[in-house]
């Protein structure tokens, strides 16, 4: 190859190398091609979904804040002390348990269940109670007169009835009030501190001949059933008086007496007795259980709330009914 041809060949190679370098450099330094733009419809859909999600989150946050603001404030612990008629014990314990389930900050001290007269005696001796529930209007009247309760908080909670019962093992099946005037049966009733006993004596004063004689000569609902005697009646020497309706029922259950006069609710409360007959309601005063807040109570608002709940709550009402109590 001649000298001129070699020069031309070298020049051609140099030009080719330079062209390749220029092309490579431009390619590596350029920006990547942009992706195709999304259609407008897709952009609108994504925007709507994002907005809906944001609104949903805001709504949930607002609802949670609203629930939090409407939730009840934490209550301070409170312990309530009740004085209640002995005949209420089983039902009241069940109702208190229901209440503490719904109101965990409330507890109950050892509720005192005694004859209504005995409860008044305890209050008179300085015992503390937040509320009093008696088994007669007369005993609550006494509590008001003595200043043991706030009369403005008083209301009637329950009604009850009297029945004549015998032991379940007894052969007796039907003994009416008038049958007691034959003197053939022994009987148990409550003493002067037990309202059930007063109601029973009122009823016994109406038989012919009278099985109980009031000191003032009155009969039935006209007498208080407290001052009087069985002496000179068909039941003289045949009556055992108990300090509570529980004791009265136990005398019949054990066979110590043939019959006992108790509340109809006591048949549900105590085992071992059966109903021989109902005592006519017109032979005694209406049997009513009044309740009131005690004047010494340091938890007046809390105990009023409990009494109201115990009277109006459906679950509580069912308990009272199961134990034979009728709301007043």
TrEMBL record:
GO terms for molecular function: molybdate ion binding. Residues 1-19 form the signal peptide. Residues 55-66 have a biased composition (Acidic residues). Keywords: Signal. SUPFAM superfamilies: Periplasmic binding protein-like II. Residues 38-54 have a biased composition (Low complexity). It comes from the Bacteria. PROSITE patterns: PROKAR_LIPOPROTEIN. It comes from Xiamenia xianingshaonis. Residues 29-76 are annotated as: Disordered. This is Extracellular solute-binding protein.
């Amino acid at each position: 190859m001649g000298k001129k041809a070699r020069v031309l060949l070298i020049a051609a190679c140099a030009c080719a190398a330079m062209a390749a370098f220029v092309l490579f450099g431009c390619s590596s330094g350029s920006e990547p091609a942009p992706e195709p733009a999304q259609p407008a419809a897709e952009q609108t859909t994504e925007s709507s979904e994002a907005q809906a999600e944001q609104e949903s989150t805001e709504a949930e946050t607002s609802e949670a804040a609203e629930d939090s603001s409407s939730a009840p404030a934490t209550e301070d612990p409170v312990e309530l002390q009740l004085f209640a008629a002995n005949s209420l014990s089983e039902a009241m314990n069940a109702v208190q348990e229901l209440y503490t389930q719904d109101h965990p900050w409330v507890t109950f001290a050892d509720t005192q269940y005694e004859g209504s007269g005995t409860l008044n005696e305890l209050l008179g001796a300085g015992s503390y109670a937040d509320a009093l529930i008696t088994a007669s209007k007369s005993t609550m009247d006494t509590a008001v007169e003595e200043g043991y309760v706030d009369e403005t908080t008083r209301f009637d909670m329950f009604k009850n009835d009297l029945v004549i019962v015998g032991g379940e093992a007894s052969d007796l099946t039907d003994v009416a009030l008038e049958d007691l005037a034959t003197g053939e049966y022994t009987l148990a009733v409550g003493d002067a501190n037990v309202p059930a006993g007063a109601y029973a004596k009122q009823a016994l004063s109406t038989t012919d001949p009278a099985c109980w004689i009031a000191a003032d000569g009155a009969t039935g609902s006209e007498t208080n059933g407290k001052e009087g005697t069985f002496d000179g009646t068909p039941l003289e020497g045949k009556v055992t008086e108990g300090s509570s309706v529980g004791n009265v029922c136990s005398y019949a259950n054990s066979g110590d007496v043939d019959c006992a006069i108790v509340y109809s609710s006591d048949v549900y409360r105590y085992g071992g007795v059966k109903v021989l007959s109902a005592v006519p309601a017109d032979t005694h005063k209406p049997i009513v259980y009044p309740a009131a807040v005690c004047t010494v109570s340091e938890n007046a608002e809390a105990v009023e709330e409990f009494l109201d709940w115990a009277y109006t709550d459906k679950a509580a009402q069912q308990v009272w009914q199961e134990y034979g109590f009728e709301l007043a």
